[in-house]
Amino acid sequence: MSDPVLETRGLSKRFGALEASKSVSLTLCPGEIHALIGPNGAGKSTLIAQIAGALKPDNGSVHLCGEDITHLSTPARARAGLARTFQVSQLAMQDTVLQNALLGATATNGRPFRLWGRPVDTLRQRAQAALTRVGLAGQAATPVSALSHGQRRLLELAIALTLEPKAFLLDEPMAGLGSEGSQNMTDFLATLRTQAPILLVEHDMDAVFALADRISVLVYGEVIATGTTDEIRANPVVREAYLGQ
Ligand code: ADP
Ligand code: MG
After folding, report:
1. What is the value of ipTM here, to two decimals?
2. Is 13 in the pocket of ligand 1 (CB under 6 A)?
3. pLDDT per residue over 86-110, tens digit each?
4. Ligand 1: which residue has its CA nearest to atom 6?
5. What are the φ and ψ backbone dihedral angles of 64, each rounded to 5 degrees?
6. What sequence ranges are listed for the domain ABC transporter (predicted)?
7. What number does the ligand 1 atom closest to the CA of 171 have?
8. What Å distances lie between residue 94 and 84, 107, 125, 140, 151, CA to CA?
9. How far is the CA of 88 from the centre of ligand 2 (A)?
10. Which residues contact 32 (CB under 8 A, 6 or more apart)?
């Protein structure tokens, strides 16, 4: 297998007595969608936060394209090529769609990205191209508050796209979407993967089985299985612990 784009090695995190991550090691390889599934409270968002840099692990490391990025801040990781979306939307509701796409604020704990000396025109073109990709070019001047929930989720992906990332970290992109919205998002993620591999936290198992090349199952902070969709579907431990069969 080719070298992973993203790798965690032994990530561990405690909240008091609770072990939210227990030595989690996983890889995200070029071109793949690796889904992370598990019951509520399993530690999926905690893991994404440690990869993105919002939460410091007690132990372990994060590697992007072979480089240890564990010491880097969230904005530095974003600049290095990690694009994250959140389980709960972090958009600036009163600002327009284009303003949100331009700021790309989500990966920086609410603080806007500096423009890193890039000409604003280039960023604007990039933001507009990203809006076109997600089908929101016609809403560029619309305030986010006027968008549907599904459109907001797509806008978050446009913001991630403006980073031209090396890897996407998506925390429940289907959350709150109806069946049409979920299908729309599934179709979009199938095209997004050609841009960069995706670590996908998702509860919608139809979407997971449709999209994922590999699935890891997290239970009580621990990866209890990693495999292809067929392997995970057939795994008796997974069926009992998570799929409830
Ligand atoms: P998931 O995303 O899989 O539903 P989370 O990563 O959000 O799970 O949470 C994992 C566990 O860690 C939960 O029991 C949650 O209550 C706990 N937890 C998450 N963040 C914190 C925090 N900042 N402080 C204390 N406990 C937390
Ligand atoms: Mg979560």
Report:
1. 0.98
2. no
3. 766 678 888 899 988 887 633 433 4
4. 43
5. -120, 120
6. 6-245
7. 2
8. 21, 19, 22, 13, 15
9. 9
10. 193, 197, 198, 213, 214
- Ligand 1 centroid, distance to 49 Cα (angstroms): 10
The torsion angles phi and psi of 58, rounded to 5 degrees, stand at -75, -35
Query: What is the SS3 string spanning 55-103?
Result: CCCCEEEEEECCEECCCCCHHHHHHHCEEEECCCCCCCCCCEHHHHHHH
Separation CA 69–CA 164 (nearest Å): 18
Domains in the chain (CATH in brackets) are 1-81+166-245 (3.40.50.300), 94-164 (no CATH)
Contacting residues for 139 by C-beta, under 8 A, at least 6 apart: 97, 131, 147, 151
Three-state SS string across 138-156, please? Answer: HHCCCEHHHCCHHHHHHHH
Beta bridge partners of 11: 24
Separation of alpha carbons 201 and 36, rounded Å: 5
**Burial class of 14 by CB neighbour count within 10 A (0 to 12, 13 to 18, 19+):** middle
For the whole model, what pTM was predicted?
A: 0.90
- What is the distance between the alpha carbons of residues 241 and 225, in angstroms, rounded to a whole number? 11
Distance, CA 219 to ligand 2 centroid (Å)? 12
With 0-12 / 13-18 / 19 or more C-beta atoms within 10 angstroms meaning exposed / middle / buried, residue 148 is exposed
Length of the chain: 245
Q: Which stretches of the chain drop beneath a pLDDT of 50? A: 105-114
Tokens 């031209």 correspond to what residue?
Answer: 164
